[in-house]
Amino acid sequence: MLSQVCSSGSQPFRQRLLPWVQSTALSRSHRVQPSAIRHVRSWSNIPFITVPLSRTHGKSFAHRSELKHAKRIVVKLGSAVVTRGDECGLALGRLASIVEQVSVLQNQGREMMLVTSGAVAFGKQRLRHEILLSQSVRQALHSGQNQLKEMAIPVLEARACAAAGQSGLMALYEAMFTQYSICAAQILVTNLDFHDEQKRRNLNGTLHELLRMNIVPIVNTNDAVVPPAEPNSDLQGVNVISVKDNDSLAARLAVEMKTDLLIVLSDVEGLFDSPPGSDDAKLIDIFYPGDQQSVTFGTKSRVGMGGMEAKVKAALWALQGGTSVVIANGTHPKVSGHVITDIVEGKKVGTFFSEVKPAGPTVEQQGEMARSGGRMLATLEPEQRAEIIHHLADLLTDQRDEILLANKKDLEEAEGRLAAPLLKRLSLSTSKLNSLAIGLRQIAASSQDSVGRVLRRTRIAKNLELEQVAVPIGVLLVIFESRPDCLPQVAALAIASGNGLLLKGGKEATHSNRILHLLAQEALSIHGVKEAIQLVNTREEVEDLCRLDKMIDLIIPRGSSQLVRDIQKAAKGIPVMGHSEGICHMYVDSEASVDKVTRLVRDSKCEYPAACNALETLLIHRDLLRTPLFDQIIDMLRVEQVKIHAGPKFASYLTFSPSEVKSLRTEYGDLELCIEVVDSVQEAIDHIHKYGSSHTDVIVTENEKTAEFFLQHVDSACVFWNASTRFSDGYRFGLGAEVGISTSRIHARGPVGLEGLLTTKWLLRGQDHVVSDFSEHGSLKYLHENLPVPQRNTN
């Protein structure tokens, strides 16, 4: 039995460790200064994060992002979290995970306290075992074995279960915390302890002394003696709260101890605007005092004293007392292993209680506005959508001075903080704005034949016709770094394709993005669809945005390879269009033209080395080594101050080689280039497939047969012959602009313009047709005749 192991079998183990644990606790009795960095072991796969913990208590945190500064934290474990589904015994896996997370935070220098349920469930398990054992012995002596199956377990009184379970529960916590070199101490309280001033001072002093010695206090109501909760006993203002369950106990304790954060774990994701499980229930991300009128509470949890209404009341009382509160799910197997650390890191988990309402809409509200606005946008006539884009193009040139002034502010603030390639991406100029306007007008022209275009028509049977038509994808989330010129491009493509749009730009381009978004909304306003494009200005982390799978249909990252990889990893249930790396190759064949090679290499590498379509690896045929052509390439790279990294085969040919490349799969994004030697076009293709990223790859040769072999066999999104890698771009392809370059193999590949932002739907028009008419003995037969597709007038 688990209870026997914890109460007796594990006792010698604890006795052996107790002196060491006590000495460890005493050695930690001097609290590390807030500014100090503590280097601690990692006992788990949860990374330790050292952060400055300094805060004057008195006012709760206004935003989730500030929770990482919480120093003193109370974690309340509801009965549904610590007990098994049968309510008899503890959920050991969840409990071990919670202890691990609390230990990680404790070893970061925080002061952790637990308010835990579970004694009744643990005691019930022990008493049921004892009753079954005694009944089986008595029946074996008096009635024989044949009646053992008919034994009935009497209803167990909760106080007796609590008395029997407290020692075992605490022994279990001690054993678990010991694995992380942390000592825990048990404190049992009742409501009377808070009403007696002397007992309150004693409790406060005890808790402070335990925290000073780096010991985790584990607090619970003394259910063995506590009377039943009074029906009319409830929250009674700021200074008084009746401890009638562990929710109210946790709130009272948090305020008494001037705690920064109270985490309440239950068996639901947080607070919903209607009972969880109902059709229209939506999780409330942030709850503000006064919002309780808009919430309908359901029944209480399957075990325990309180329900969600009790948790909300306790949370609001704690919030009023200066403690931030988060209510979250501690039972979900996919999140329970990191729910506490995620909350402290400021991630969007559960419901955060805040006294500060944001000035604008929440990101969820912005998603809903983009959805409804996008649907209205899709219903406009093509000419109306084109008019909006033309107006936005005019605004880019008419408001040029205001745009450049805002961009200048961004550049001044970024000076010294961003690398030179990023500063170049951040910069706007008159020529850039003029190019943007030209590109937008190209998009406007192409938008005439996009949404609603009939792609296929089929006569299924007489008077039963099927159409496949182009329609918007829905709501796009575009995340971009240091590229304010990306905003009007993406906005125009979203308008042309009838998609709603959420934009999340980097903070380094705040001023530029703000004015460009205002201009986009001004253009949209001419046909009453202003809300179709939203700029996310809240403190939402990118990872949190990637979880909005019910609001977002496609994520398009525009930025570094690391940003793309992070988004691909974070996106749950939302497709991501993009490429994680731009490792572009150029193969110089033995029959390459001397006049063409240096021009193509210079343009591909040096014209804009930070771009994703810049050259990163130059493959040279072995026969070209020690030839004038090879010398010209090297001399040009030296003049352009390109740092060369030698591939393994190239290095083997040289007596004094440049620095050997660390990896052949590297995107430098700067004036650096890897050079490698190959023996044939096939070896070049094999190298590209092994080390490339399926972005853009080029062959330079005068042999048409070799070139066609390369074009047909290289499996990349863009494959060129005698052309710079930099042509891999939506504007240069005549798409007007692009939302990005995709290396995926479904939906869209290469530079993604207007067509890549559309999907299809099927329209079937009939006259009382039913499937049974087409059965073996039915009256109708399938025709499946292809019908001509109507052509739109795009002039």
Automatic annotation (TrEMBL):
Keywords of the record: Amino-acid biosynthesis, ATP-binding, Kinase, Mitochondrion, Multifunctional enzyme, NADP, Nucleotide-binding, Oxidoreductase, Proline biosynthesis, Transferase
Domain (Aldehyde dehydrogenase) ranges: 363-625
Superkingdom of origin organism: Eukaryota
Domain named Aspartate/glutamate/uridylate kinase: residues: 71-329
Organism of provenance: Callorhinus ursinus
Name of the protein this chain belongs to: Delta-1-pyrroline-5-carboxylate synthase
Reaction it catalyzes: L-glutamate + ATP = L-glutamyl 5-phosphate + ADP; L-glutamate 5-semialdehyde + phosphate + NADP(+) = L-glutamyl 5-phosphate + NADPH + H(+)
Main localisation: mitochondrion
Family statement drawn from the similarity comment of this UniProt entry: In the C-terminal section; belongs to the gamma-glutamyl phosphate reductase family.
Iron-sulfur keyword on record: no
Membrane spanning residue stretches: none
Pathway this chain belongs to: Amino-acid biosynthesis; L-proline biosynthesis; L-glutamate 5-semialdehyde from L-glutamate: step 1/2; Amino-acid biosynthesis; L-proline biosynthesis; L-glutamate 5-semialdehyde from L-glutamate: step 2/2
HAMAP family the record matches: ProA (MF_00412), ProB (MF_00456)
Any one biological process term the GO annotation gives: L-proline biosynthetic process
PANTHER family linked: DELTA-1-PYRROLINE-5-CARBOXYLATE SYNTHASE, GLUTAMATE SEMIALDEHYDE DEHYDROGENASE
A GO MF term: glutamate 5-kinase activity
